[in-house]
Design a protein that fits this description.
heterodimer, A: alpha/beta, 11-stranded mixed β-sheet, globular, B: mainly alpha, Histone, subunit A, about 5% strand
């Protein structure tokens, strides 16, 4: 049995049937990492001995019947902005290089309760600020579908680890598309749930009103099962919602008859790569042929989402990242006097993209500019939310691409920040409006790079998305199984451009 | 570039953000911020009069709970992350100049 080609749900079933063990599964992942991690660099920290010990403990609990859920025994990778007790959590930043949390994020605790076994922590853009995983202070991650290209970001390490078979599934976080866009670039499934569905307790905050944790995985079935496991009402997160409808796997139904699907004209207009457009249209046609009612409509305000997002996200970031001052944790620069130490610590500890966003955020919140920028952005956000409300009175789902292109080559994006920000155009409004979105593979370009299909739903309508995505996946026979193929021979390692 | 960031503005932002920028970094920051502000100025094309600002998508008010201690004593674990400690306390550099 080729363990690494199994989905998370299939693996757990195989362990329960005695066909394999949680330890064998972890060993398979570690062996795979041994083979490919030098090239891909998906992980910032992998706790090999700990992982095997945890797998052994899980196996014993499964044999005693203490762990019976659909994720029991499955190795999982966690993005490095989610706190893990006793295991380093750096947010891919020099400023948190030596930070070891005293507690675990609620989503991680929920996964452990479900019997998933932590492998290690995945690479990301520093503090989740970036769209390529190239702003990490600890080196880039390469896209396993083509190592000359980026995996996307900011949850690039998580998406790449799933695509590379270096885990069975992973957790990411999505502030403006940071789960859905890397899922698209790496050819895996990724979902951002409705804001408040997954507790943010223990997630190092970037844009608190926008951040949500979600799964990166191989199949829509896995996605539903993982989301079901990590969703919870948590008193430790005051924005956490009490939902009774988190039985997401009940929506794994292959049927879209009568489902109303809207395609925003602006999502298929100027700036979209032709091959991505064709693949997305083909997916829409397939759903239509199987009974969905598909039509184009005008969503409006699409161009205003990015300016509003960067104003709000940077404002929140400037406030959230104030806590990194060299006192309680993390890096401290050697400087005389408290204020000089603060400034030196932050200036040396943060990378250029993080500084850029903190400065912009400080500026838009400053006296004299607050109304013109921050308050204006909150009004634009309200209008965007209203536009989605109007759309969802007509449609069950909104369908479109997750990104305007396939994964760019390494080194192409960082030189022009605004161009990088424009790549978030299809994902960002979901965070402003708090709505759920899923990305699933829908084909590949001539160069063999994956193309992602994004479905957006109204708040609390994850089940409609899961149903539509599951139906598409079954109809199209799309597989996002990891690439278990020979690597380039030694010496053929590609250069970073 | 419509938004010109002056030296005074970048110094002021540096104080707010608690960041100090070296010469080259400072020039780059001025240029980057100017470009970003030009870009986000697009929002001004949209008439938002009569629209209520939306800080949160759900009408969540303050959420209260009893202030009960549920975690144990995490002193050691917490302090072990600090750059410098003494007698179970964080050590900070001199706060007032002599």
């Amino acid at each position: 049995m080729e363990l690494l080609s199994l989905s998370a749900v299939e693996l757990s079933a195989a362990v329960k049937e005695g066909k394999t063990t949680a330890v064998e599964a972890m060993k398979a992942v570690l062996a795979r990492m041994e083979e490919t991690e030098d090239l891909y660099h998906c992980y910032l920290y992998a706790d090999r001995e700990g992982a095997l010990r945890r797998a052994q403990e899980t196996q014993e609990k499964m044999e005693k019947g203490e762990l019976t859920g659909p994720l029991a025994g499955v190795p999982v990778a966690v993005k490095d902005n989610l706190c893990t007790r006793g295991i380093p959590t750096t947010c891919a930043s020099k400023i948190l290089q030596n930070f070891v949390p005293a507690f675990s994020a609620e989503a991680v605790v929920n996964l452990e309760k479900a019997g998933a076994v932590l492998i290690g922590k995945t690479n990301m853009d520093e503090f989740a600020m970036g769209s390529t995983t190239e702003t990490s202070a600890f080196g880039v991650t390469r896209n396993p579908r083509n190592p000359d290209h980026v995996p996307g970001g900011s949850s690039g390490g998580s998406a790449a680890a799933v695509a590379a078979g270096e885990c069975f599934f992973a957790l990411g976080s999505d502030t403006g598309g940071s789960i859905r866009q890397p899922a698209s670039f790496c050819g895996v499934v990724g979902m951002k749930p409705t804001y408040g569905t997954v507790s943010r307790y223990g997630l190092v905050a970037y844009g608190s009103s926008l951040d949500q944790i979600g799964p990166l995985c191989k199949t829509v079935e896995d996605c539903a099962v993982i989301l079901e496991a990590i969703s919870s009402h948590d008193k430790k997160d005051s924005t956490s919602l009490e939902r009774k409808d988190t039985d997401f796997s009940s929506a794994l139904v292959k049927d879209v008859k009568g489902m109303r699907i809207g395609i925003p004209r602006d999502y298929l207009g100027a700036g979209l790569d032709g091959q991505v457009k064709d693949a997305v249209w083909k997916a829409a046609k397939l759903l239509e042929e199987n009974g969905a009612l598909v039509e184009e409509f005008d969503l409006s305000l699409v161009d205003y989402a990015i300016p509003a997002y960067y104003t709000i996200a940077c404002a929140e970031a400037s406030s959230n990242l104030e806590r990194f001052d060299g006192i309680k944790y993390g890096y401290r620069a050697d400087a005389q006097g408290l204020h000089r130490m603060y400034k030196a610590t932050r200036s040396q500890g943060f990378g250029p993209e993080v500084k850029r966003r903190i400065m912009l955020g400080s500026f838009v919140l400053s006296s004299g500019y607050y109304d013109a920028y921050y308050l204006k952005a909150l009004k634009v956000k309200a209008m965007i939310k209203h536009a989605f409300d109007a759309a969802f009175s007509q449609y069950d789902c909104i369908l479109g691409p997750a990104a305007p292109s396939t994964a760019p080559r390494l080194g192409e994006s960082l030189s022009d920040p605004i161009r990088m920000y424009l790549g978030d155009i299809y994902t960002i409004s979901a965070n402003l409006a708090g709505i759920p979105g899923i990305c699933i593979p829908c084909g590949e370009s001539e160069e063999g790079l994956p193309i992602g299909l994004q479905l957006l739903g109204d708040c609390f309508q994850e089940k409609k998305l899961i149903r539509a995505a599951y139906t598409y996946e079954q109809l199209a026979g799309v597989q996002s199984a990891p690439i278990v193929k020979p690597l380039p021979a030694k010496g053929e390692k590609t250069d970073v451009h | 570039m419509a938004n010109r960031i002056t030296d005074e503005m970048i110094d002021y932002v540096g104080i707010l953000a608690k960041l100090e920028l070296s010469g080259e970094e400072r020039e780059q920051a001025k240029e980057d911020m100017g470009k970003m502000l030009d870009y986000i100025d697009q929002m001004n094309r949209l008439d938002t009069s009569g629209i209520e600002p939306m800080p949160h998508v759900f009408p969540i008010q303050n959420v209260f709970r009893e202030d009960e201690v549920t975690n144990g004593d995490g002193t050691e674990e917490t302090l072990c992350n600090a750059p410098e400690t003494k007698n179970h306390m964080f050590v900070v550099p001199r706060t007032f100049e002599q």
